[in-house]
Amino acid sequence: MDTHALLRQLVQKNDSKIELYVADGLGGLPQQPGGKTELETAATPHLDKLAAEGVLGGSIPVAPGISPGSGPGHLGLVGYDPVEFLIGRGALEATGIGFELKDGDVAIRANFCTLDADGKIADRRAGRIPTEESTPIVERLAKEIAIDGVEVIVRPVKEHRFVVVFRGQGPAPEKLGGSVADTDPQATGVPPLAAKALDAASEKTAKICDEFIAQVRKLLADEPKANCCTLRGITGKPSIPSFEEVYGLKAAAIAVYPMYKGLASLVGMDIVGDAQTLDEQMDVLKSVWDQYDFFFIHFKYTDSTGEDGAFDAKVQRTEEYDSAVPRSMDLGPDVLIATGDHSTPSMLASHSWHPVPTLLWAKNCRCDAATEFGEQQCVTGGLGQFEAKHLMTLALANAGRLAKFGA
Amino acid sequence: MDTHALLRQLVQKNDSKIELYVADGLGGLPQQPGGKTELETAATPHLDKLAAEGVLGGSIPVAPGISPGSGPGHLGLVGYDPVEFLIGRGALEATGIGFELKDGDVAIRANFCTLDADGKIADRRAGRIPTEESTPIVERLAKEIAIDGVEVIVRPVKEHRFVVVFRGQGPAPEKLGGSVADTDPQATGVPPLAAKALDAASEKTAKICDEFIAQVRKLLADEPKANCCTLRGITGKPSIPSFEEVYGLKAAAIAVYPMYKGLASLVGMDIVGDAQTLDEQMDVLKSVWDQYDFFFIHFKYTDSTGEDGAFDAKVQRTEEYDSAVPRSMDLGPDVLIATGDHSTPSMLASHSWHPVPTLLWAKNCRCDAATEFGEQQCVTGGLGQFEAKHLMTLALANAGRLAKFGA
User: Fold this and answer.
1) Chain A: nearest CA to B6, how far in angstroms?
2) Any B CB within 8 A of A10 CB
3) DSSP 8-state symbol, A289
4) Can you give the pLDDT at residue A170?
5) A250 to chain B nearest CA, in Å?
6) Residue A86's pLDDT is what?
7) Does the beta-carbon distance from B385 to A381 stay under 8 Å?
8) Residue A330 binned pLDDT confidence (cut-offs 50, 70, 90)
9) Does B403 map to a domain?
10) Which pLDDT score is estimated for B346?
11) Of B236, B269, B286, which one is at a domain's C-terminal end?
């Protein structure tokens, strides 16, 4: 079913406020069978109170058994089918460093490589050149490279990786085609591939790619490691309908990390504030409360501690996440959802496929028997297990923002 | 997945009897957090006994968060995807007064309006003319209007609203196209719109619409309020495969209200009896028991009391619904399902999105731990939460009417 098509018919506006309070990687696993997960171990009095008043469930980010990356995880969470709406690797990389793509841009993940005297690739990652060495080289490219009729934006990422964006110039910039094959041959001892357009609209982009590489090679001829680069994941800005268009919501994103600001901006949220801590995020929330309908608040550290395999640290970060709940509730939201974009069990030290504990609090949410927010209670919660992409519909319904379907 | 395509392959016939016992708007909400819903408050000893022997679950009429109208609610309940099978406004209005549409008919919801001396709309609803004034005018139109080659059927509804049906004449009547735009300009101070066909097959229908309005205007020229009409929701009979064709079931509908008789007739059920009370419905059920495989029994008052916001009255109506269960069970059904087409919590005084309490009783249904029929016990019931459209498959399976899929 095309949920967005249905919602476009049904959405109605009112003055309600919806908060989506995301603890990245929230779901976990116990350290031994029969034990408690990170969330169940953590003292979370404020979330437990909301769990008792609200309704729990398990959110399935993509499909049972599928572990999502941050892109699909967040897209699903805000109601976009993560299999339908794909973000190309180049666009995701640009988004990940907080770069705001425009329609018609082409974004590329570039890798420095080392060519031998015959122009063949000797090292596909330029000896994993350290960031402190690669950054000045990227800055030099940013300054020196010039291609007729196109703006070239080059930004460092980490080690051998950097981002390239081509953008049409002028008051009505040309939209560049975003379908060009990788120039990385995925092998050493062979020369880099010429850029090959995969459709007619991308012929010009392929030529720009070749010109870019030629200039890089010339500029970096004397570099011992990073004397050339390959281009991968060459893609346009993904075509994603905006939050306002689909849900009729004016949405604000309050995140610390660039990747999540980038993902939020792709669905048309305003990136507000420049908070560096959860407490500062709550300050920003309060300061913009009157200007928006929907607030996406992203807390990163439940994921990063999970990725580190640090059970106790994840417990502690979960308690920190809980501690900010009263500041949210003081603002008087109509709907508050606490959940994650996926599970990151510290026992796996990676994203996982396990359903994500989800708490929905609203006046008419049909409270269930749950008394605490945790994986076990979510299993028997009133929301059941559901695909993450339905969560926005539930949020809108509970906020009174959906008309009846059919007479 | 196309469930109907699957079922068409698997359906096998036997002598089993399936009863779908619908309490309209059954699901509810407690009056305060932690309290009991209408169904949980009601004394329902007969349903509780079936709950203990059967299996419970929560039915999602359309999708999580979507509140359905009666059309999509009932279509979903009897296994038709409510987003795929849409019933146009005109067809629903005709159905709602119990009018049986035929293939090739065009059904229209008409509104009396008031034109000023310049032929511009002064009042889009003819001053909400009372039913006792509008009905004789409709009867006059029914008697006087004649259009070459087409049968014109005109029926009163309420106040300014009436139904018009155009039907091809003769032994092999022409099927009329049903895609014509509304003639209501949705504004006053402007003349009504001419009928505009939205596809080539509806050109003739548009001409008939214009001729109809011209005759109405002439006939009613001296009426002070209702001196013209607009035509809205101009639609053909929806193309819905019949119950017998998809499920191999000969089905009887035992309903009191015209709307539900109409909806049942759209899926090819026979409308049987003329019961006015639940007790009379049970008399009809008994009298036709040997002639059908499937019985749809519709009880309206759990919805109407919910719509009225009358918690106690809904509790009482739920007890009435329960009280008729023994008369059903005495007939010895193989499968009995008690559920609603949607929730109508009296706390909201409207249809809602909350999952509908559902009870399936059958010999081999895999009984769960439930002891009472109510929203909370449905959350942890053996059917889980499921899309309503799957309920018919479960009914057929429990009746032994489905062959194994694949070898």
Assistant:
1) 18
2) yes
3) G
4) 82
5) 20
6) 86
7) no
8) very high
9) no
10) 98
11) B236
- pLDDT at residue number B73: 95
Radius of gyration of chain A (CA): 23
Give tens-digit pLDDT for A23-67. 999 999 999 999 999 999 999 999 999 999 999 999 999 999 999
Asked if B76 reaches chain A (Cβ–Cβ under 8 Å), the answer is no
Flag whether A407 is in a domain: no
Distance of alpha carbon A389 from alpha carbon A79, whole angstroms: 4
A382:B379 CB<8 A? yes
Residue B1 lies in a domain: no
Q: Is pLDDT at A100 greater than 90 in this prediction?
A: no
Same domain, residue pair A202 and A77: no
One-letter identity of residue B243: F
Smallest Cβ–Cβ distance between A405 and the set B68, B348, B355 belongs to B68
Between CA A250 and CA B398 the distance in angstroms is: 48
Note whether residue B326 is domain-resident.
yes
CB under 8 A, 24+ apart: contacts of A83-89: A85/A238, A85/A240, A86/A238, A87/A238, A87/A263, A87/A266, A88/A178, A88/A233, A88/A234, A88/A235, A88/A236, A88/A238, A89/A232, A89/A233, A89/A235
Sign of the torsion angle spanned by Cα atoms A144, A150, A156, A162: negative
* Whether residue B363 is found in the same domain as residue B270: yes
Domain shared by A125 and A195, yes or no:
yes
Please name the member of B66, B70, B376 whose beta carbon is closest to the beta carbon of A368. B376
Structural domain containing residue A167: 92-236
- Interval B14-43: pLDDT, tens: 999 999 999 999 999 999 988 999 999 999
Last residue of a domain, one of B217, B236, B255: B236
Q: ∠B369-B372-B375 over CA atoms, to 5°?
A: 95
Query: For residues B312 and A382, what is the distance between their CA atoms, to the nearest angstrom?
Result: 24
Distances (CA, A) of B41 to A55, A110, B30: 20, 65, 9
For residues B96 and B46, state if they share a domain: no
Phi, psi of A28 (to 5 degrees): -140, -165
Q: Is residue B266 domain-shared with residue B394, that is, in the same domain? A: yes
Contact B63 A390 (CB under 8 A): yes
The residue type found at B392 is M
**Which pLDDT belongs to residue B407?**
82
Q: ipTM score here? A: 0.87
